[in-house]
Amino acid sequence: MTSSILEANLAIILRRWPSIYQQLTTADLSNYSVETDNNTLIINDIQLTSNYEREKEAQLQAQRIPQDSTKAFIYGPGLGDTCNLLLERKHLKNLHVITLNPVIFLHVLNSIDNTRWLNNKKTHLHCAPLFNELHSPFLANPSELVLASDENAQLRDRIELELNNENIKLQFTKDEIQEKILANIDYIEKDPDITKYNIESIDEIFIAAAGPTLEYHLDWLRKNPRYIICVDAALKTILNAGITPNIVISIDKHVFHFFDDIPYKKICHIPLLYFPSVDRRLLEYWKGPRICSYSQTPMFSKIKKLKKLTPLFCAGSVIHPAIDFAVKLGAKSIILLGADFSYPNNKSHAGTYSPPKSFIDVSIVNHWIFNYLGEKQPTQANFKGYARDLEKYIAEHPEISFLNGSEQSAKIEGVPLWIK
User: Fold this and answer.
1) pLDDT tens digit sequence for 190-227
2) Quick one: which of 350, 375, 362, 341 has its CA closest to 161?
3) What are residue 123's DSSP bridge partners?
4) Which fold has domain 4-169?
5) CA distance 293 to 351
6) Alpha-carbon distance 380 to 341, whole Å?
7) Where are the domains of the chain?
8) Considering only Cβ atoms within 10 Å of each terminal Cβ, which end of the chain, N or C, has fewer?
């Protein structure tokens, strides 16, 4: 690959960022097809920018950066349009441009004159994954998120999660959701807070999540009883294996089917930790001890005014508050079983999970995540988001040892494998 345009672009990078120059000039260009189509590039059949409205597209993306902001972060520079546009702002002092795939960036440099923004003293060029944090305010080139290199998969997931957060918050504040929560107020008012759940200090707590790899540990758990916090979707599997969890946690309004055919005698002495958002039928069904909590999300803004509860961390998955509850119980070591965030062996859940079928058609799955074997495992977008949010939570608790039970689970940063 060589052109006068590339030489001019690379000359600036060599002068200002020699380490990035080295990475670019040693990049493996195989497995990438590149076409030029009027005003854009098509890489691996993905159009890098709009072909006819590049300027308007750049203006739309730039709206994510406040006009008075003194700094901005661009994840994936595309063809350089947003870089040049933001540098025209008088308030901007520092523009951080992060490449998500050196091969994509090199092909752009070979085709498009980017010397204007590369030469600007306000520009700071970074090469992920060395620059692996998500900073704000930011914008991201959608096509480059799809084309991000494997090394930058974690950063890509964090970007996508943040981009979706605003829409998720809007869903949580809908009136019908608030009405369902307030309909449970009679239970919420009489059920105690998690601080009333008194047990002796337990150094080691196991989280029984509902992923397929939970099955690998059932025999061991039956022979080696441990303190277990069980998520709702794993309860039937645990009980059918002859294991009684110490507490069950449920937060979702659509999960009553996890409980409706369980013989009451099996669970009458097990405490239920629930969020106000659960199906009222669950609260009516559960005659044993109940404990109430909620998260800091906008979903519970109204209920917080009616009753003050100790919140638990939750970013969408029931495993989050289960883990946070273990932390609040004083655990020094937390072992995750079935925390797969993916579809090991093309299966979605442990045990005989009825609605829907536990086996899935991975041909329709468009997302993946690395497992502990370094393999790309099929998953879905929200599972990746749950995993990345959990990584942030774990990073904030370095005093606790987190361990994962299976090498087939999604690899969680900061969580080594558990050795029985």
Assistant:
1) 999 999 987 777 899 999 999 999 999 999 999 999 99
2) 341
3) 95
4) Rossmann fold (3.40.50)
5) 28
6) 8
7) 4-169, 175-404
8) C
